[in-house]
Amino acid sequence: MRALVRTNRDLRVDFFRGFALYCIFVGHIPDHVLWVLTLQVLGPSDSTETFIFLAGYSAAIAYGRSYDRFGWTYAATAVLLRVWTLYVVHIFMFVAFVAQVSWSATRFANPAYIDEINIGAFLDEPHIAVLDALSLRFQPAFMDILPLYIVVLLVFAAMLPLLRRPAVLLAVSGALYLFVRVTRFNLPTASGEWFFNPLAWQFLFMAGGAVVVMPDRTHAALRRAGPVLLPLAIGFALVGLFISAVWRIPAVYAALPEPFAALIYTSIDKSGLHPLRLLHFLALAYLVARIVPEGARWLTSWAALPFTLAGQHGLVVFTLGVFLSFLGRLVMQEWDATLPTQLAIAVLGWAVCVAVSAFQAWYDGKGRPPKQRPASPPLAEVGSPDSGAS
Amino acid sequence: MIGCRRLIAALAALAGVVASPVSAVPAAADKCAAPAEFSVASGALPNAAAAVKQRKRLAVLVLGTGSSTNGGTSDQAASYPQRLENDLAAAFPGITVTLQTRGGRGLTAADMLPLLVEALDQFRPDLVVWQSGTVDAVRGLDPDGYGETVSEGIEKALQRRADVVLMDMQFSRFSRAAVNYGPFRQALDTAALAHGALSFPRYELMRYWAAAGQIDVERAPRPKWAAEADALHACIAKKLTELIRDGIRQAGP
Description:
By secondary structure, chain A is mostly helical.
């Protein structure tokens, strides 16, 4: 399997993206016990931040190269093809959701669940529900991260030319983020607002992109600022752990002065990417970049391989993971939710993701002339949008 | 605190997996048995305590949606609000306990807020048990707005010298798979902590009872639906009484 991992790129990005995708897969199965081993225990930021940031990082490499070689129209078309794939998966997930609910609801007539029966209320007006799903206004449970990714990519397609001017990219994207934070502007759904406000979250994606295209002098400045940044990042990581403890351990909450504890507990929203989440993630990313050397051997060890390989096929694994977590929820609904079953869901689900990544890697390898391997874009599926649909 | 409860519940489920063949007999003896964490009050109930200790009375308002006003029990007397009235009277001998139920099927937290205000003025309860969240989550409303509404309700109750116990959703495997309760339970816990209300973890209790094979309304065969709902409501009333007693005890003499 190790031969299937491409090594002409920063494997740290692949590993952590793979791990974030695994966390998203597990995190989308409510009551799954393995959430205690996901990124969210480290602090306010979680796998969503990691995934969006690294998606921006990878997109800037892949589409930045297309943009340099063939121009805006070509690169934007490539982005839009990916958006189309995500959109089709979103509609597929909607159909799966309809199947689950309409099938379960018929057996769910127990008057003890008189309020829950309304889960199927959208089936009373299918023409409205379908139109809402098509226009991303219907985002039922656990179907909110695909629409986020879709809109963030649309914003990215519009901002592609700014990859040549990273400072302007960050300024425009940051201004949009600030505008959304201040005005609380959000896109509407049929019943409320988007859970992940894409106009806020795009900033993290563009920040990931800006890291790729930032000029050498900025790199040098960052290196010079190391003695200041490192303690700052460590401090923020520790603050993150502290916030996580306040959120999750009642004794820690109780030990703090009430207004302060309540402030920590109530004010850090996920929907609009609260600045503390942003800073916590950036601190973690900086620390990882400093601590883990680019060619660290453990990134291709057997223990890390399932994440590194899956991380190299982000789109496939992301969409597959969304569907597999749906199946995991279904198993826990219909069959059994004991610990052995939960562990089996996690292991089997991720094994499927790794196996599909392996086939994808093998397939991509066959399609490429053996000698012209370098300079391939980090996202394997970039050049062949159809291969990402799996 | 949602994470902590999930952790406790996961560990309890693990213990249930390991110990279930051994503990089957005592479990049958007490259907309501559950880890003590689920009915320990995270704070005091000063208004309810003052009513009990000084005025020798306790007025309780139960406000909720379908699972509180018509929860599938064999009759109204078997539902948890009515049982709570009896259990509280038994728990506090010599105290006059009165209880009123408001709300109804399909009400959001925002729908219930005016009902709460009206009841606070007319009935003047010392304690409000507010069950909410299911309808908001099922309809996919905004979790932040939900949390703000609940917070507003707690503040209004406290201003009128009524303590608040917040009750979350019922557990069911289907709704767990098809509704994202997470942000709403988080918002409920947040509102409770930030405004000094107590949380009654109905979801985790029901999940525990289902995993341990004690009470499982969802998987009961149709002829047993009402009997299983009766058992559920009896146990909810019992655990709620334990929580309220603990909250009153914590308020001191």
